[in-house]
Amino acid sequence: MTRAEEFEDLRPLLFSIAYRMLGSVSEAEDAVQETWLHDAASPTQATSAKAFLSAVVTRISIDVLRSARVRREEYVGQWFPEPLLTDPYEDPERSAELADSVSMAALLLLERLSPLERAVFVLRDVFGFGFPEIASAVGRSEAACRQLVVRARRHMDAGRPRFEAGHRERDELAGRFLDAFKDGDVDGVRELLAADVQLVGDSGGKAPQWGTGIFGAENVARVLAALVTPFIQLGGVVEPHEVNGQPGAIFRDRDGKVINTWALDILEGRIQTIRAVLNPDKLGHVGPVADAWAVIREANRARRPTD
Fold first, then answer.
1. Strand-pair partners of 266
2. What is the mean predicted confidence (pLDDT) over 112-122?
3. Which ranges constitute the DSSP H helices of 74-141?
């Protein structure tokens, strides 16, 4: 197998490591490309391409994450990860860890970790790397890496929500919710929401926003019912789709352009959180992006009574 073929075989793994490190599809793709350039420029071929390339993409991601921290601290409104529609890396032996670690909630918890803690946690608990490989990747001793992963686990466990284990039940509830939403059925929507449900969005100041969020089942149900009728009348489409390993949806305008995405957190048979990514800068990999402000203006005109 040539070096290029070996790299292509490992590309899904490298992207998946970088995405969990960075929470950004575009930055993860850039990190993988930089890893390829680094590998191609190396005069010798590593004994283990997986260990070598994983270490390179991890170091690149740590550097990107450190520089991104300032930008995220100055970000307008809440920061959410870029929505991931499909995780390219599959490993049946680690499917539970992979699915859990890519959820919006888990990625937001990872944001609380230091770059080194995040790297060690991702490599060890998500992808199952050994401590010798991890130590080489992050440039720390094995003992230091063990301490880092213990701290990271403590932070993650303290904030980790316990989502439904049964995918079929979760997906069925999400389907009922989206059907009720599309029908403008306030009662049907409300009965599937947790009492303290949150509807929160990430617009980055570049798209319509719900302030700091909408809270409580009654408020969320009424806001959603008010939004959906003019949206559907204008030819908008609510496309159910898994987002970050969770039930969700892609919202498109009449021309098929992306307006936003939703990811649904489901616990104990109720929807706990609806996270909407509206920032157009985070949606380009999903498809051509709509002008959300224009959609809102048209929807508002459609809501006005005519003489």
1. 271
2. 96
3. 95-101, 104-110, 115-121, 131-138
Query: Rounded CA gap, 84 and 25, in Å?
Result: 7
Residues 6+ apart with CB under 8 A from 57: 14, 17, 18, 31, 32, 35
Is the CB of residue 234 less than 8 Å from the CB of residue 302?
yes
Burial label, 179 (beta-carbon count in 10 A; 0-12, 13-18, 19+): middle
Tell me the average pLDDT across 202-210.
Answer: 89
Q: 143 exposed, middle or buried (CB, 10 Å; 0-12, 13-18, 19+)?
A: exposed
Dist CA 169 CA 175 (whole Å): 10
Pairing status of strand 248-252 against strand 193-202: unpaired
Beta strands 258-267 and 214-215, pairing class: unpaired
Amino acid at 285: H
- Determine how β-strand 248-252 pairs with β-strand 258-267: antiparallel
In order of their start, the domains of the chain are 3-159 (1.20.140.160), 167-303 (3.10.450.50)
Write down the pTM of the prediction.
0.93
